[in-house]
Amino acid sequence: xxxxxxxxxxxxxxxxxxxxxxxxxxxxxxxxxxxxxxxxxxxxxxxxxxxxxxxxxxxxxxxxxxxxxxxxxxxxxxxxxxxxxxxxxxxxxxxxxxxxxxxxxxxxxxxxxxxxxxxxxxxxxxxxxxxxxxxxxxxxxxxxxxxxxxxxxxxxxxxxxxxxxxxxxxxxxxxxxxxxxxxxxxxxxxxxxxxxxxxxxxxxxxxxxxxxxxxxxxxxxxxxxxxxxxxxxxxxx
Length: 237
Hints:
Layout: H1 3-8, E1 21-25, H2 33-41, H3 44-60, H4 67-77, H5 83-90, H6 101-110, E2 115-120, H7 124-132, E3 140-143, H8 144-147, H9 154-164, E4 171-175, H10 180-186, E5 191-194, E6 209-211, H11 216-222
Parallel strand pairs: 1-2, 1-4, 2-3, 4-5, 5-6
């Protein structure tokens, strides 16, 4: 049994019929934004430093400040040319979804008939452009700018729930980073973690399930309510 599968088969994993909608982190869970940051920076190591600095700033900023300003300030803090922020925005339409992402989202909306949306730490303009790169219609697109705060503050998650008109327990959140786990979980949503980069979560709460691709999400959401892959009952019938 692979490590990813062991992490996926955990108590309380998602099951069929429990959810009316699925919300995704956009720039990590559905799209490969890391590659674009690295390309603009010139190499992977520099891109990682720049992006890491930007993430630290979003987690600490409080109320929303323009995304582009934070990206530029992060470049300066890492002794990079702040013009890179403009280059990143200019190349934003080069963002690519993870290979399986469009098919997974399309399957959720067509076969499973779930409503699907994204919650993203982005400006309205860049968030909408990024969402369009998925190539699949979405019911809800919530940006940090629209919510007035960056994740993992509760405002973006709550705005998405308000737009869906659903209680949090009926909406599964698919995290891209470990900080989405307490963020979405803090407003009452169960969390499934697409840990593509095999990040560690340290002392943060455990998600319902953790996988390194999105494909297992479809299986988890189609698992009958008293069934687990190991045959043990986890949820009362």
